[in-house]
Write a structure and sequence with these properties.
Structural class: mainly alpha
Number of helices: 36
Shape: elongated
Oligomer: single chain
Largest sheet: none
Strand content: under 5%
Number of strands: 0
Length: about 700
């Protein structure tokens, strides 16, 4: 202080030396061979430090001098004392001193404290064996980070090694403390931790998969803190992040969804990883917890509002990670280069955003009380549609995974994606419908339910004129379709008014080469083709679930002509048990689909040529002989549909329906004396008997 004379300064130094001498005996006892002496000295020094710390003036100055001149070295040495109680007391005393010392003194001591604490956490022989003390050592490093700040970066290699050991620590609280320290260091040493981020992120894997939900939650927070500094490890840790987004604990899922949203909003070069992170938010739109669904919805809306779709493509595609490059290449259109796919992605974004902003049409019942029963945010729709050609391939691949958990995750992701992109999904209908047809009747009810919702979203958003022909091509195709080429679809009449009836009367077959017909009919009745049709029929029913009579009218002829063919799902001869099960299942699907058509289209599908096609399809199913294994479920359902069909035509009766349609159907199956080749197990013979039973025999006799 100003005015201090040399004599006064000398007196102050002597006074300070005298004060320090009061504690020197206890400091000396820290190096004593007797464990009890060391413990008593630590206890007395802890009380003295508490007294000095309470005096912010002279006491703090004395404490700093005591620490630097005599206490620091023997105290840090006791962190490795052979007696656990002494290590505990030494660690507590060190933490108390570091909390009380001024920052300059702490920074001057980093070279001593940081390596000593980190060494006790490493995997070497010097590591601390007691889990509670390892926890306190991690907290001590946290105190150093908070009090010392940037100068601690010099010791990041040693601290990073301690963090890796902490992530793998068997003590759950130590794992959580290591994760908290990681977050703290990412904030305090943001400019220096980047070289260590990738290695630390990989070391987090055990904690990300830990059995305790709180450990997983803390690990997610640490992972996000690291990825925000260095996102290169995201490609490797993406699958684990996907598992956390569907974790069994709702708190972990909520933390993961919030973390993904933060990464998308703040991560450097986020456009290179958008397609990797978006699926986690899209999947969360179907979460069973309302708060998580709401968080995902809000996050997507916020991201869509803050993202310029054109700016998403500023970064060259080559900057993408290799796995995303592969997905983009697999999804290019007609062999177009990736740049063309990106250009179409921008156009898809505009289409999706416009559709989302428009008034939403009525939603099918399956979508009621879900996130998807409302128009999506326009900005988010554009963002997702822009990335659609990268999002779809991995989701469709995972939809065929052998584990139900992976399939439900893929189905949830697809549902969120299709809800947002709307009509922009039209360019991808081929692979999309193929994947949905294989899982629409999944053995897991959760997967099947979500796939049905996906199909209804496609049917609601895309044009029937696009997807109906695609599905009909698959329904017409036998398992040996490659043998017949385009002949499989010849003569079906497309969407024309008369094509379907012409096909039923035989006009379609007359335009195909005989050899092709032989292969087609032989292939169309094998169990594989019939079983595949069941999936496509179920998918078609879901696609058309929300269609109105006006929307269905132009397509009724082609729809009914396809399912009314004699070989569609009725065996030409008696079949074995396995094949019979496939036929029975497909017949039930057909009846459900036809019942849906009658309910939606009414008289438009129950009269005229369409009525004949519908009547023919139902009577063929009703005529199938059953067995003890398969019962009469499909036959009863067909008769019920006939009653519904009759009611759709001005409330008429089944008798009136038979009177109108039985004669032309009977004429078709007996034309050219074809009945002379019938055998006891022929499908046409069974149909003839069914017609006779339904009509009372009179019309058949005539």
């Amino acid at each position: 202080p100003t005015g201090t004379t040399p004599a006064m300064a000398a007196m102050e130094v002597d006074a300070e030396a005298g004060t320090l001498q009061l504690y020197q005996r206890d400091v000396n006892c820290l190096s004593d061979d007797d464990r009890t002496t060391r413990r008593r000295a630590l206890t007395r020094l802890a009380a003295s430090v508490s007294t000095l710390a309470s005096d912010e003036a002279a006491g703090m100055q004395t404490l700093a001098a005591l620490w630097e001149q005599s206490l620091r070295a023997p105290l840090l040495k006791l962190l490795a004392d052979p007696v656990e109680k002494n290590r505990e007391l030494a660690l507590a005393l060190t933490a108390a001193v570091l909390e009380a010392l001024p920052q300059p003194v702490i920074r001057a001591s980093l070279a001593h404290v940081a390596p000593a604490a980190a060494a006790r956490l490493s995997s070497s022989a010097a590591a601390e064996p007691t889990e509670e003390l390892r926890l306190e050592l991690l907290r001590l490093l946290g105190t150093l980070a908070r009090r010392a700040g940037t100068p601690l970066s010099v010791y990041l290699p040693e601290i990073a090694a301690a963090l890796r050991a902490g992530f793998a620590d068997p003590f759950p609280d130590a794992k959580k403390a290591a994760c908290s320290l990681c977050v703290q260091l990412s904030d305090v040493l943001a400019e220096h931790i980047e070289p260590h981020c990738a290695m630390l992120a990989r070391a987090l894997l055990p904690a990300l998969a830990h059995q305790h939900s709180r450990v997983r939650t803390a690990a997610v927070e640490a992972l996000v803190a690291l990825l925000l500094r260095e996102p290169s490890a995201l490609a490797e840790l993406g699958p684990q992040l996907a598992l956390l987004a569907t974790d069994r604990a709702s708190s972990v899922r909520e933390q993961a969804v919030g973390s993904v949203a933060r990464l998308l909003a703040e991560m450097p070069h986020r456009e290179a990883n958008t397609a990797r992170l978006l699926p986690h938010l899209l999947c969360a739109l179907s979460d069973e917890v309302e708060s998580i669904r709401s968080l995902a919805h809000t996050s997507l809306a916020r991201l869509g509002g803050s993202t310029d779709v054109a700016a998403q493509r500023v970064q060259p595609l080559a900057a993408l990670a290799p796995d995303l490059m592969a997905a983009a290449d697999a999804a290019t259109f007609d062999g177009a280069p990736p740049e063309a796919a990106d250009a179409r992605g921008e156009e898809a974004a505009r289409v999706a955003a416009a559709a989302a902003a428009a008034a939403a049409p009525p939603f099918p019942p399956e979508l009621a009380e879900t996130t998807f029963a409302a128009a999506p945010p326009a900005g988010a729709a554009g963002l997702v549609a822009c990335e659609l050609h990268r999002l779809l391939p991995p989701a469709l691949k995972e939809l065929s995974d052998w584990t139900a958990k992976a399939r439900i995750r893929a189905a949830d992701t697809l549902a969120g994606t299709l809800w947002l992109v709307g009509p922009a999904a039209t360019d991808h209908l081929g692979p999309l419908l193929a994947a949905l047809s294989k899982t629409v009747e999944d053995s897991d009810e959760g997967v099947a339910r979500q796939v049905r919702r996906c199909a209804q979203l496609v049917g609601r958003s895309c044009d029937l004129a696009v997807y109906v022909p695609l599905v009909l091509d698959q329904l017409r195709a036998p398992s040996g379709a490659a043998l017949v080429g385009s002949a499989a679809t010849a003569g079906c009449g497309g969407n024309s008014a008369g094509g379907g009836a012409d096909f039923l009367r035989g006009g379609g077959h007359s335009r195909m080469r005989p050899a092709a017909v032989t292969v087609l009919e032989g292939a169309e009745t094998d169990a594989g083709a019939i079983g595949r049709r069941a999936g496509w029929l179920s998918l078609l029913g879901e696609l058309l679930a929300g269609a109105t009579a006006e929307q269905l009218r132009p397509h009724l002829s082609a729809l009914l002509a396809t399912v009314a063919r004699p070989v569609f799902c009725v065996p030409g001869r008696a079949s074995d048990d396995d094949a019979g099960a496939s036929f029975a299942a497909t017949q039930l699907r057909l009846c459900s689909f036809l019942g849906q058509l009658i309910s939606s289209a009414g008289a438009a599908c129950a009269s005229g040529d369409n009525g004949l096609l519908l009547y023919s399809a139902l009577m063929r199913v009703a005529s199938v002989p059953s067995s003890a294994q398969h019962g009469f479920a499909s036959q009863r359902r067909a008769i019920e549909c006939l009653s519904a069909m009759a009611a759709a035509v001005d409330g008429g009766s089944a008798e009136a329906l038979h009177a109108v349609f039985l004669p032309p159907l009977l004429a078709q199956i007996t034309a050219g004396e074809a009945y002379k080749s019938w055998k006891v197990d022929s499908a046409e013979w069974h149909l003839f008997q069914a017609l006779c039973r339904q009509a009372g025999g009179g019309p058949c006799a005539r």
